[in-house]
Amino acid sequence: MNMESSILTVKDLRIHFDTFEGTAQVLDGCSFRLGKGDTLGLVGETGCGKSITAKAILGLLPVPPTRIVSGEIRFHGQNLLSLSEGEWKRIRGNQIAMIFQDPMTYLNPVFSIEKQMVDVIRGHARHRNGSMSRSEAREKAIGLLDAAHMANPRLRIKEFPHEFSGGMRQRVLIAMALAGDPEILIADEPTTALDVTIQAQILRLIKELVERFHHSVLLISHDLGIVASVCRRIAVMYAGDIVELTTIERIFQSPSHPYTKGLLRAIPNLSSREGKLVGITGSIPDFIDPPKGCRFHPRCLHAMTVCKEVKPLLEEIAEEHQVACFLYEPSWPDAARGKKAMSQRP
Amino acid sequence: MKQYIVKRLLLIILTLCGLITVIFLVSRVAPGDPARLAAGPDATEEMVEVMRTEFGLDKPLVLQYIAYFKGLFRGNLGRSIRTRRSVLDDLIAFFPATFELTVFSLLFAVVVAIPLGVLCAVYRDRFLDHVARVFSVSGMALPMFWLALMLQLFLALRFDFLPLGGRLGMMTEPPVKITHLFLVDSLLTGNWHAFQDALRHIILPAFVLSFPALASIVRVNRAEMLEVLTRDFITSARAHGISKIRIIGQYALKNALIPTMTMVGLRYGWMLGGTILVETVFDWPGIGLYAVQSAVYSDFQPIMGVTLLIGINFMVANLIIDLVYGALDPRVRYE
Amino acid sequence: MNDVWTNLKPSKTSGVWAQWKEEHESLFRDIRLSLYLFSRSPLSVTGMILVGVFFLVVLIGPMIVPFPEDATGAVHMSQKLMEPDSRFWFGTDEMGRDIFTRVILGTRISLRIGLIIVCVAMGIGVPLGITAGFIGGWVNEVIMRITDIFLSIPGLLLALAVIGALGPGITNSMIALSVVWWPGYVRLVQGKTLSLKEEAFIEAAQSVGAGKARIIFLHILPNCTSPIIVKASMDMGMAILAAAGLGFVGVGAQPPAPEWGAMISAARNYLPTWWWYAVFPGLAIFITVLGFNLLGDGLRDILDPQSRGYYRE
Amino acid sequence: MRARTWVLVTALVLGFLLALGGASQALEIRDGKKILVFGARQPAPNIDPSQYYDWSTRMLQQCLYDGLLKYVGSPPKVIPWLATKWEASPDASVWTFHLVKNAVFHNGDPVTADAVRFSFERTLKIKKGPAWMLLDVLDPSGIAVVDDYTIRFSLKKPYAPFAAVLPWWYIMNPKVVMAHEKDGDMGQEWMKDGDAGSGPFSKKRWEHGVLYELEAVEDYWRGWEHPNHINGFIFKLIREASSQRIAIQKGQCDIVEGISPEDFDLVAKMPGIYATNDPGLTTFGVKMNNQKGYTKDINIRKAICHAFDYDSLIKIYNGNAVLEDSPFPIGLRGHVSLKEKIYRQDLQKAKEYMKKTGYPDGGFELEYVYVQGLEEERKIGLVLIDNLAKLGIKVKMVPLAWPNMVARASKMETSPDMMAVFTTPIFNDPDVVAYQYHKGSWSKYYGSAYYNNTEVWDLTDKARTIADFDERMKYYEKIQNMILDDAPEIFGMQYNRRWAFRDHVKGFVFCPMRFTGEVDMYPLYIEK
């Protein structure tokens, strides 16, 4: 896939998070691209930095304690990180919209769905510098809810979040996300909070909508299955690094990174939100002083001395297939490569 | 909803009965001899007896207790030994002043404190925030009566623009009594002079009385705002490009107001207690002053009357607050 | 953010003892966190210092005051109402007594008032609260209804009524204030106990057949301490304030005791000309109470974060 | 931006306050009427002359009502008022009064002998307020209306001071009172705020706990002494000494009654203000329980009398007081000065007396009971603590509400070791003071010493039955000496009665028979 067609480019993004115990390096130089109509899945254990990436793209990270140390997020060539709050507002919802993890907590409990959606819709209208009357906005909201397969929206729109089931709320959130018909839709674990049957419905909904409105999608999940069902490409994330980036087909045919392999082995019990992989021994490392070199090496069965020293970078090992692992460095040991790798580290 | 209110009211009555009992028992521990005071210092034994029968103090405790309840239903709260008048009359005469003062103070506190709290939360750890926090912490540490004296000393004395005490200038004819609240009445009757005078008189006491309330409401509101602003629905609102003003002024504030309300209700009660001190300093002719003087005289019928009245006030206020919840929070259901 | 946090924590494992271990692991962590937060909040530190100074003054007061006898009933009519100067730092009062001396020695009275009221209140409130919360049922009902009665009117008023009966005096005002103070603790502890009863580790403890007493003393009480400590430290200030209030309306401490509130009420008659008489005791009250409040605040922020920016009576 | 808004807000608030700022006015001239403002610490919740009196109440009663006679001037004289003249039988048991013909009540009814009879009867029947003064010498049956303007009192037993009592028995209009009678209460309920009098002023505005306004009866039957007499006055409650001081200083009041001695001296020097300073008849004494506890021992009592620093009393009043030199107040009819005998501070003597007791160097504690909130009594207590410490006696200060104090005094067992008491002779006759030491006064607050000397009692009883005053004097001289020797109390001082006036207020006449703050408003007039 080529540079030009990509509308969102995340390059070498480093995010640190200050806690009283020290600085957690939660994102350590992650890079990926998202093309037009492209659907990319971001997979990894809970807390590997997926959500942070997503929030970073929408500039929703609370600063402090988070700090964006380096890197850039380019949307149509414009670096979002350099935007003012005012400019952000034009992007959010309008061009890039987000569907959140937990529908229970992402709706304001004290306002009716109508009010919340109308506010959103009119807000967008204003940014498109054309205003919109309440009633118009209301009609549009009802339309969106309908599109999100909400049973008799005209009535239910009056209700308050606590009167809806989890699935229904997620539909509301999706409808809201669509309100500004954005180019990019970021779905952060859109189904994890829901029970399995609902999950399926919601996924189907998202797929359908994507096909209908041709959004580019960044789907974040800890569940390979889910990603596979929606996305064309996939990025595997481990402890703040993208370790493997390729298409769905390849990931299942020839998973390359040891961690990816582990993931695949672990699929059955992956959805158990324990944040612990049965397939792989040990658990996600401490972000405050992460392992030197490859962050995965303490858990890696194939760990070599170099892994403990040098941080591997994403390297093309095949068409549309990048891996960050020294196992796939053909001419290793090679001081130069090592040095190059070193020089990449801040 | 209806049953809920009824239930609450019943509970209030129950509590009041308990309250009466407690105070009644307490009151009868009093060593003093009320009849003797009523009779006057030079009174002969014979005269004291006259009083004793008149106040029903010659009957055994139980009978007095029953008698008190009986009287209560007939709207008779007994008689004050100090003022030699029916307690009910006194309360009717003095309560409006207290009510006006507390409500005015509370309004003042709320109107100032809530925006201030919001601002502090928004500009957390900025100059304003620090100032407001120091102010709010010290607000609760300042002895009301002392603050009152100091204000009298510096505002009322040094610069001569606020009166020292009282409810109206002694030359100002009180406005026609409709609600018995001077500010309201004078406005209703368009008596601008009286209104201005009443306002001038209420400013200092109201400020002093509202000070602690103001402080604590700012604290609560600030804390709540800070907490709410970290919630997910705020993030999503931002993600959908809702403007900052709206997020803070509506989405966050409405959530934050719910706990704040509780504090407001609580503070109303504390204010009623505070009147004891403030009215003493500002010579405000309300039931706080009435209570103090009665207590010093160990004149008990009035104390019971005041306790009862304030108890009712406090509990009803809290009931109202709970109803306000409903308006603020759709999740609240009254069972 | 949340997922990062969960990962900074050690992963959960099941089982009573493991849970115990976890309890303690997190305890150390909490302590580290506490110290960090506390030292980072200037207000808390100020409070700490003020309270420290207060206790210091209580201890060495008698040694540093110029005229100790002035606090115990000596009078010098010849030097009444003298302005503050090098000899009488805060001036003298209507009986020619050194106000500085009396203010300093007043700390002892205030401390006594605060401690006694808070301790008595806790002594009554905490057991009742636990009983109510733990046993529940009608016991709970009865206790809480009674508590409500006492909470149904402002404390100061109730105290006033009680004093009206017992007669004025410092002891009586302390009794009166204790009488109105305990319900706060019942409410606090009862609520906490109720919520704790639901907690996993309590149920676990019960499941392994731990006795009621054991549960109360090993599980519930320790978990109530933080809020209690916080409230106590706040109440120290509030109690002192209330007692001063009673002293001011003239039913509190009696002469010649150098109680601040009483001093101010005597000083009223000498405003505005002899302003210093009223000013200094007031400042003393203010600073003391401020100290305890700030300290309480700081403690709450670190010990009892869920109760957030305020606590309820 | 924030900073600016705040500045703005504060500016606005201040501006607002300034806008509200009103000048405080002195004497109010309301549509040409001269209305005085009298600042008082004590309310008058019940002005029924038959039910109650204290200084504030009686001040208003004196304005609304007239008595047969009236006290004026210092030394106090009893002058005819509603009565023009009167005769007493030689044994002082039958008294006849002749009334003025032109006196009318506020509603126009004439003041007749019937009204007088009614008023006395009412008070005697209700048995409240001043009733005690005559209760055991006069029965309703003893009151006879001779004709419309003549009335005769036949006492149960001879009572020489009878006439001296009458100024405090006010005459009420029977028609008005009985018109408001509710279930046989003789109009008590209504008379609390009612006006059934014939006095120089009538009721205008009654706001309990705040103020009472009275207006002059322009065609008062006795006329007015000065053309510029006041047309009314506001009895304004200002409970705090310091507030009163500010009120007079700022001219919000024209007369104030209760500011601290220190302040009196200050305001007296201020422009536009003058302060009177007249010796009063009110005595301060520390009554000791003569029959119970340590103070039962006369030597301890004398020791205490000698240990007490009398000058501090004067200091407390900033020099505006005189020490008593006899059990009877200086200036009271029948007082005899005992300068050389009276107790003064002399620690030597005090210690000697202590030696005669079981406790040569003390080591016990005495209670000092005083009225809650009475500044002077509190200060005196502090002085006692200081003084008696020198004898090794500890003093415990016990402030009590007045009723509790009276209650404690009412029984010998509970009557305190030492009790601070102010007493004002209710009428100008030595008997009134002598009787305080009579068994008949036991269980009264002024009898709290439970003074026990039958000889003194007999003399007192005898003296009150003699009509000829010079004859009586012999007895009273003896009585004063005997009481002094028994040292039943610390004989303290008589403080000066003080009021501060704006200097346009003229015509004030001091009369020591009136209570602490009480002012006779009738003679006042304005001069500007």
Structure description:
The complex is a heterotetramer of chains A (346), B (335), C (313) and D (528). With 335 residues, chain B is mostly helical. Chain B is 75% helix and 0% strand. Chain B has 13 helices and no strands. The model of chain B has no long low-confidence stretch (mean pLDDT 85). Chain C is mainly alpha-helical. Chain D has 528 residues and is an alpha+beta fold. Chains B and D meet through helix 2, helix 3, helix 5, helix 9 and helix 12 of B and helix 1, helix 4, strand 13, helix 8 and helix 14 of D.
Q: What is the H/E order of chain B?
A: HHHHHHHHHHHHH
- Give me the count of strands of chain B: 0
Q: Enumerate how many helices of chain C there are, as a single number.
A: 11
pLDDT < 50 stretches of chain B:
none
Helix/strand order of chain C, N-terminal first: HHHHHHHHHHH
Shape of chain C: elongated
Shape of chain B: globular
Biggest sheet layout of chain B: none
**Largest inter-chain contact set:** B-D, 60 and 63 residues
Give the helix/strand class of chain B. Answer: mainly alpha
Helix content of chain C: over 70%
Please, what is the average pLDDT of chain B? 85
Number of helices of chain B: 13
Low-confidence stretches of chain C: 1-13, 307-313
| Class derived from helix and strand content of chain C | mainly alpha
Quote the distance from N terminus to C terminus of chain B.
Answer: 7 Å
Key descriptive features of the protein:
heterotetramer; C: 313 residues; mainly alpha; 11 helices; 74% helix; elongated; disordered N terminus; disordered C terminus; D: 528 residues; alpha+beta; 8-stranded mixed sheet; 6-stranded mixed sheet; 17 helices; globular
Set out the fold topology.
The complex is a heterotetramer of chains A (346), B (335), C (313) and D (528).
Chain A: E1 6-19, E2 22-35, E3 39-43, H1 50-58, E4 66-75, E5 78-79, H2 85-91, E6 96-99, H3 113-127, H4 134-147, H5 153-156, H6 166-179, E7 184-188, H7 196-213, E8 216-221, H8 224-230, E9 233-238, E10 241-247, H9 248-253, H10 258-266, H11 305-309, E11 315-318, E12 321-323, H12 335-344
Parallel strand pairs in A: 3-8, 3-9, 6-7, 7-8
Antiparallel strand pairs in A: 1-2, 1-4, 4-5, 9-10, 10-12, 11-12
Chain C: H1 2-8, H2 16-40, H3 42-64, H4 99-135, H5 137-151, H6 155-166, H7 170-198, H8 200-207, H9 212-249, H10 260-268, H11 275-303
Helix pairs in contact in C: 2-11, 3-4, 3-11, 4-5, 4-7, 4-9, 4-11, 5-7, 6-7, 7-9, 8-9, 9-10, 9-11, 10-11
Chain D: H1 2-20, E1 28-30, E2 33-40, H2 55-64, E3 66-67, E4 69-72, E5 77-80, E6 83-88, E7 94-99, H3 113-126, H4 132-135, E8 143-147, E9 150-154, H5 162-165, E10 170-171, H6 174-179, H7 188-191, E11 201-207, E12 211-216, E13 232-237, H8 241-250, E14 255-256, H9 261-268, E15 273-275, E16 278-288, H10 298-307, H11 310-316, E17 321-323, H12 347-356, E18 364-371, H13 375-389, E19 393-400, H14 402-409, E20 418-423, H15 430-434, H16 454-463, H17 469-486, E21 489-497, E22 500-502, E23 505-506, E24 525-526
Parallel strand pairs in D: 2-13, 2-14, 18-19, 18-20
Antiparallel strand pairs in D: 1-2, 3-10, 4-5, 6-7, 7-9, 8-9, 11-12, 12-13, 14-22, 15-22, 16-20, 16-21, 17-21, 23-24
Helix pairs in contact in D: 10-12, 16-17
